[in-house]
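dumping the sequnces here before i forget
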Amino acid sequence: MKRIERSDKVRNGFHQAKWDEPIIFELSQKGERGIQVPHAEEEISAQIGDGISAIPSNMRRLVPPALPEISQPRVLRHFMRLSQETLGADVNIEIGQGTCTVKYSPKVNDALGRLPGMTALHPNQAEETVQGILEIIYKTDCFMREISGLDNFTFQPGSGSQGILTMASIIEKYFEERGESSQRNEIITTLYSHPSDSAAPAVKGYKIIHIPPDENGYPDFEAFKLAVSEKTAAFLVANPEDTGVYNLRVQEFTALVHKHGGLCGYDQANANGLLGVTRAKDAGFDMCFFNLHKTFSTPHGCGGPACGATGVTAALTKYLPGPLVEQHQDRFILNNSNTYDPTSVGKVRSFLGVAPVILKAYSWIMSMGAEGLYEVTKVAVLNNNYMYKKLMEIECVDAPYIKGKQRIEQVRYTLEKMTKDTGITTGDIQRRMMDFGMHYWSSHHPFHVAEPMTLEPTETPSKEDLDEYIATLTQVFKEAYENPDIIRSAPNRSVCHRVDGSGVDDPKQWCITWRSYLKKTQVN
Amino acid sequence: MKRIGFIVNPIAGMGGRVGLKGTDGLAAEARRRGALPRAPTKGQQGLTPLQNLDFDLQLFTPPGEMGEAEAKREGFLPTVINRHTTGDTAAIDTQYAAKMMRQRGVELILFTGGDGTARDIYSSIGETLPVIGIPAGVKIHSPVFAQTAARAGELARLFLEGRLHHFDLAEVLDIDEEAYRNGQVKTRLHGYLNVPVERTRMQNRKCGSPLSEKVSQNSIAFDVIDNMQEGVLYLVGPGSTTRPIMENLRLPCTLLGIDLVMNGLLIAADVNEKTILDVTKNRQFKIIVTPIGGQGYIFGRGNHQLSHRVLQRAGKKNIIVVATQQKLIQLRGEPLLVDTGEVSVDQMLAGYIHVTTGYKQQMIMKVR
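..and the predicted 3d for all of it:
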């Protein structure tokens, strides 16, 4: 019998499922039901009434909601089909979503999150009945303190951006209490930090000052010196930035801000290459946030649920949103002193944050141990630099800044040469990579690096996985020179072919609800 | 029935291959050195995507290799507009063709050439009609061109199908070819053409989205206006980034000149250096400028009215530089530039400067 040919690493035979599945509202058939709820027995009705009239009349719907009417098997088929039309983390080699730190989320942690002891909890339960989850939250807080060097954490923020917003709120409250809020109205950040480091404090009304990179890709210190003044409320920065370049002089930056009376907040969304190596407090930061859904392995879950665990020094703990979980002897309690203190942030989200996410992060940290976390960082950095070296050997690939030096956990490459030679852009490559079942990401807009390609392998992929991704990219780059039409028409083997994107810039064509779709497509 | 104009500058690009750094006035020399025309092929490639439309298209072209021949080779039956001259084609032929096309009611002009051709189109029709450049010249500094000939054609098709929604003014830049041949780069801003803002096909593709670039310009304007002080005279410099300041003040604007504004009123339009020196004497004033796209000059190019004497009187702290982040990114890490002709003023401006990039948003940029 002939062996199956597996010498080529590239999946040229890949083809994604295409179900041409309608929108669920289009599947609705009047009267169709997933479940027929029986009428309550007389004895029960006598006790509780009809189950509706007890609800205050102003809270009752006059007409039922216009939900799709649909049977159970059709619902199941619908969502199974949709799941096959996505490129989820469980089916592709997740290297192509640079800055997102998409690593493997062990299934055992999901299983823990589904235990009845977790799912049946209600956040309004009395403290003494939820000691288990409070202990987990408290211990996760302690882990975060150890990892960052800071003194207290909140898990309320539901995302990295909300973590930044929480830091901005703490900054605001800090200067409000000192009577300096009208004077200190500027936040400094860098051009390669995440856009949320600008956007979140802008929401609070701060003026944002951006520091561009110098010729080596580090934030320009001379420009920074001009930016820092008595108007500076804080410096919010990512390090390493999205280029994978680590600013070695970061302590000089934080020291200068402190000298002028400002605070320093660390965006640690890019922390996967730092565990056990550097700590926020040691670099001079007063606060930071980690994304549990990135560095600490909890699933990204299609944009949520997430957690931007935000920590501060002891001096800033009084401004944190409440309640905070504390240990008193062998009990865990909710300290609400911050929650109702007008000089603190108060609250940024209900209750304590997304409890199952904290549980999964706790479980992952426990399974790794301190040595394991350090190993995560070492392997993530090794994987990234292996890939960096291999990709830089391809003629059309380059990466600006610190030539010949290692990057941390990700790299923002440039494909400018390929675009100049062939007209094929990074967006075209992104579409073509879908033909091999792979994600690929360019950069936030606007592009600071021309024709960018941002890759972050994390510690998850094996050398085999890395080689498959590199081989696939190499083949696609070759196609750009030898058979560009196959790229221009891509994706050819995905759920849909190239989409006409002209509507993206035309608000008249935007429909974000089914109702708006019906309205905008109405035939007169 | 849709109407578009199609112009080819048949000698565009000939100088480049034979080392002439442009073909202005040197077509014969380029031919003598063995240069072959490349623009007609490019122009033809630009027309290919316009085949098989679902509606009738009337294509207006000048005769011969200025458009008619290319159109016919692609299977079109163009309506020919007569040339202004006979013999070798000249700049005036492009200018004349664009003008006549506007008179004939075309909705868009697709032109093939380089920066020199863009200048000719601008000098003839200004910003009055949408245009798309097919890149074929030696110099492509102006962001009015598509990335490739085929993509220019695709854009034209989208436009005709009503699927291209955003247009904005893009700079028409050109270098002095004679100076360039002598080793000097002297860029000049000649004006603005009305081009599609589109991410994937235009050379201005790097903007976040067509909407965001426009929004950024407006948010810069709001920041400047909110910080304007009573009794202070503002000298508003040229450019598409400063224009929204005037628009949001509901004042007329001189796109290539300096306008004077005080207390929300237009004091004078398109003033020269002498007027500026007269009105700023013993008066508090501020200068609002934007760098030239892709070049980075904030003084010394395109705004000579803001002379070293004016700048000396203003001082660095009274200069407000405005630019979208996109515009600064296009400098590719290079600093902002000054060339006032007076070393001491250049030195005063050198170092770092705050640049307003949005509402309550700035970037610190190096100036050289």
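Chain B has two domains: 2-196, 210-367.
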